Amino acid sequence: SQELEQSPQSLIVQEGKNLTINCTSSKTLYGLYWYKQKYGEGLIFLMMLQKGGEEKSHEKITAKLDEKKQQSSLHITASQPSHAGIYLCGANQISSGSARQLTFGSGTQLTVLP
Amino acid sequence: GAVVSQHPSRVICKSGTSVKIECRSLDFQATTMFWYRQFPKKSLMLMATSNEGSKATYEQGVEKDKFLINHASLTLSTLTVTSAHPEDSSFYICSASGGLDTQYFGPGTRLTVL
User: Fold this and answer.
1) Which of A7, A57, B49, B54 has its CB 3.0 to 4.6 Å from that of A62, i.e. a possible disulfide?
2) pLDDT tens digits, residue range A36-76?
3) Which residue of B has its CA nearest to A45?
4) Which of A50-54, A77-81, B2-6 has the highest mean pLDDT?
């Protein structure tokens, strides 16, 4: 099965600082999803990447998928306390079929100090 | 759009009783729903995949007789934890997909079995 490794496991930054979270796969990623979770709550969809070299941005968050489609990064610019939470990457396990199952990374706990 | 609700958000029950958790897609038709379990400070673990009108597919190690899943309509799936025991205490999250689309997650249900 596909394994996803996230790094770092936890991150504490000062408000206003930039940060990057990485997600690395042992296999080719057919679809890479980034979610944010507050502890004890559901997951909020952030972005989905499919094509090698793809990059998407929403507000101050940018996600990239490398050309080989085995690594993705999530970059937050000028972090704010509202960015705090657990960031999870998830990937499709198979290349075709409907509503494909997701395998999740272990998550990155982000704390933003005011 | 793409809102998924779960009910109840929290439930406390006695050991040996059964608990039903509902997952609803509020503004789209979910051909596939997924049920996950999450332990404290851990990532999501897929329990089962259910397609509307057919039997759920359970992941290895998940007891199908213990965790009954029903996906009777395109907007509702239920997870029933039968004869619950303290080790079943966990955070259960569902997600719903309209096909090849992104999975949208519910807010989760915290189950505590006394």
Assistant:
1) A57
2) 998 788 899 999 998 889 999 999 999 999 988 899 999 99
3) B104
4) A77-81
* Ramachandran class of A69: left when φ > 0, alpha when ψ lies in -120 to 50, beta otherwise: left
* Cβ within 8 Å, pair B105-A42: yes
**Residue A90's closest CA among B55, B88, B43?**
B43
Main-chain dihedrals φ then ψ at residue A54, nearest 5 degrees: -70, 145
Question: Which residue type does A17 have?
Answer: K
pLDDT, tens only, A19-29: 999 999 988 88
User: For tokens 């704390």, what's the residue?
Assistant: A111
Residues 49-108 of B with CB under 8 A from A: 49, 51, 91, 93, 95, 97-108
Helix, strand, coil percent values for chain B (each to nearest 5): 5, 55, 45
Cis amide prior to B40 (ω within 30 degrees): no
Cα-flanking dihedrals φ and ψ of residue A50, to 5°?
A: -130, -35
Q: Rounded distance, CA A63 to CA A20, Å?
A: 9
